[in-house]
């Protein structure tokens, strides 16, 4: 089974060819980060235009690198949502054109299902499992009883973890995207500033990062007003410890309560060294639960993960029609 997958939900134009849902024959990613950097964040109109320029080239490169012809393919998969609507539409229309021209089944994929299934590209999945999704737009704990079944047991009530990283980075005058810069600084600092931890109600698996973000901004503002020198390393380390402690504690609690076989890490913030180290340490208390962490290249947006998620839908006969549309508000649970 060969699936050509396309991803254009945000600022990466990507195409991949995936064999049997877990083998990457090609995974071409053209990132727009250098262009959006100038504006301090992703500009939707600019993103759409760049996807239009790149999409054909990226698809052709993915096909030739995989050494396959359209007649070899079993299906075309594409990110249906969530994401920037103008960006999604470029991928969806490219996929529809190929599906129509070559009479291939079309599969719309949820972007977060893609981030989760990136793990299948490196490891066999065992259910039930728990996925910790930490990306630029999402922070969620997702319980999966079976293949293709998603139950969101907790999610952020305000900012996503990656968003909080990027905003705190901006107050420290670090370039976009700020997550990797904070991570690097945090390794050199000490977590000696008592920033708050948002535990929310007892037993809740929801998250909140806006209070922490405001606490960091206030801390910087006060220091500036009083003319006190701050240590960016210590601010980064203290902020990161607050984020990681809450995320990891809730993940471990959920892994126990739901008695899962695996915990999967997913999304761009999964690249965070502090988060990876803490999760590895805390998960080592379980002898019957495995932690799976994808390599960095599969944590950030890419089409290979979309192909891996599409394979499950293909096997389950969950195909889309040629009237498929980009859906920025697509719901993971009711796909
Ligand atoms: P979504 O998947 O929710 O639509 P997205 O695709 O834009 O959002 P990703 O590409 O998965 O998000 O992740 C990007 C985010 O990851 C950015 O916010 C970035 O700052 C953050 N990030 C990347 N590396 C690190 C790191 N080492 N530490 C913390 N955050 C990081
Ligand atoms: Mg991105
Ligand atoms: Fe993403």
From TrEMBL:
Cofactor(s) the protein requires to work: Fe(2+)
EC code: 2.3.1.234
Transmembrane segments: none
All copies of domain Gcp-like, residue ranges: 23-307
InterPro entries: ATPase_NBD, Gcp-like_dom, KAE1/TsaD, Peptidase_M22_CS, TsaD
Keyword tRNA processing listed: yes
Binding site for Fe cation: 111, 115, 301
Major location (coarse): cytoplasm
CDD domains recorded: ASKHA_NBD_TsaD_bac (cd24133)
Reaction(s) this enzyme catalyzes, per UniProt: L-threonylcarbamoyladenylate + adenosine(37) in tRNA = N(6)-L-threonylcarbamoyladenosine(37) in tRNA + AMP + H(+)
NCBIfam families: gcp_kae1, T6A_TsaD_YgjD
Protein name (Swiss-Prot/TrEMBL): tRNA N6-adenosine threonylcarbamoyltransferase
């Amino acid at each position: 089974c060969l699936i050509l997958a396309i991803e254009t939900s945000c600022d990466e134009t990507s195409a991949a060819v995936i064999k049997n849902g877990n083998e990457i024959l090609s995974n071409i990613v053209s990132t727009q980060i250098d262009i959006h950097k100038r504006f301090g964040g992703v500009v939707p109109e600019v993103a759409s235009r760049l996807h239009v320029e790149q999409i054909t080239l990226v698809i052709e490169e993915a096909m030739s690198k995989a050494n396959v012809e359209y007649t070899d393919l079993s299906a075309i998969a594409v990110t249906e949502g969530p994401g920037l609507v103008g960006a999604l539409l470029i991928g969806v229309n490219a996929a529809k054109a190929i599906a129509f021209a070559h009479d291939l089944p079309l599969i719309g994929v949820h972007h977060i299902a893609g981030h989760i299934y990136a793990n299948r590209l490196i490891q066999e999945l065992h259910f039930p499992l728990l996925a910790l999704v930490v990306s630029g737009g999402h922070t969620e704990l997702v319980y999966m009883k079976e293949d293709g079944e998603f139950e969101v047991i907790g999610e952020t009530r305000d900012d996503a973890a990656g968003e909080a990283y990027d905003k705190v980075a901006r107050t420290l005058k670090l370039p976009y995207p700020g997550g990797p810069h904070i991570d690097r600084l945090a390794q050199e600092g000490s977590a000696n500033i008592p920033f708050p931890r948002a535990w929310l109600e007892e037993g809740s698996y929801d998250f909140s990062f806006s209070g922490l973000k405001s606490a960091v901004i206030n801390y910087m503002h006060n220091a500036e007003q009083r003319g006190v020198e701050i240590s960016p390393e210590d601010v980064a380390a203290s902020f990161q410890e607050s984020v990681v402690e809450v995320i990891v504690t809730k993940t471990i609690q959920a892994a126990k309560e739901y008695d899962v076989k695996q915990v999967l890490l997913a999304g761009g913030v999964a690249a965070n060294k502090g988060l990876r180290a803490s999760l590895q340490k805390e998960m080592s208390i379980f002898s019957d639960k495995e932690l799976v962490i994808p390599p960095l290249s599969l944590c950030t947006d890419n089409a290979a993960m979309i192909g891996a998620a599409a394979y499950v839908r293909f096997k389950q006969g969950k195909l889309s029609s040629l009237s498929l549309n980009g859906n920025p508000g697509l719901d993971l649970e009711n796909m």
